[in-house]
Amino acid sequence: MKLHLHTVPVFLALIALVSAPAAPSGSESLKALLARMDKAAGEFKAMTAQFTYVTHTEVLNEDNTETGTTIMKKVQSGEVQGIVDFVSPDKHTLTFEKRRVKIYYPKIQSLEVYDLDKHGEHVDKFLMVGFGTSGAELARDYDMSVVATETMKDQPELRAIQLRLVPKSGEARQYVKSMDLWIPEQGDPYPVREKILLPSGDYRIVTYAGKKINPPLQPDALQLKLPPGVKTVYPDK
Predict the structure, then answer these.
(1) The CATH number of the domain where 43 resides is what?
(2) 149 near 29, Cβ under 8 Å?
(3) End-to-end alpha-carbon separation of the chain, Å?
(4) pLDDT digit string (tens) for 135-178?
(5) The sheet that has 231-233: what strands, in order across it?
(6) Is the pLDDT of residue 3 over 50?
(7) What pTM does this model have?
(8) 229 belongs to a structural domain
(9) Is 231 in contact with 109 (CB distance < 8 Å)?
(10) Does any domain span residue 225?
(11) How many CB atoms neighbour CB 95 within 10 A?
């Protein structure tokens, strides 16, 4: 298995369909949304959530669905650390810290380690989109537009703004064609759904449930706990 930047669960993927979109209010909606994100970025420290992660392979027209839990922590400005526990259909755990990704597969007692430092700051930016990134930072790195305002099908009481981000950097567009965030119209501006579209036409969609912002975390909450005898491999070397 070769790990590319876009395969890292940057917390980007699919929720069930929503009702027919209403016309957005254009630049005023975008300006207000970015202002909310500016405020939230300074307050963000950590998050926990359950997720549904859908990977769509365009050439096969197939979807692969996984579920699990995740924890993300802001370590310092521009840097996050996280752990993703995939529960079904195949249990495995992924951690990311300082541009290094580790994936533990308990069935085969194997730990794969990937160094993403060659991708530089793109890794940090993609990981933090939606959680800990200010509106001003997004405006610097992405062309943004409000696509629609929708009532979420599985949460009829919730209306969300669909915000589309297109990387300004040509290098970044080699990894990601666009990203969509579904952000509540009112309250905290943390996404309930994220989608990342790749240049190949493949996409990943993440739906969050039970999300908690800035919860208390145990000191070892983001540490990968391995049993004795696990074999470590470096697929990229």
Answers:
(1) 2.50.20.10
(2) yes
(3) 12
(4) 888 888 899 999 999 888 877 888 999 999 999 988 888 889 99
(5) 142-151, 159-167, 178-184, 193-197, 203-213, 46-57, 62-76, 79-88, 92-97, 100-105, 110-115, 231-233
(6) no
(7) 0.81
(8) no
(9) yes
(10) no
(11) 19
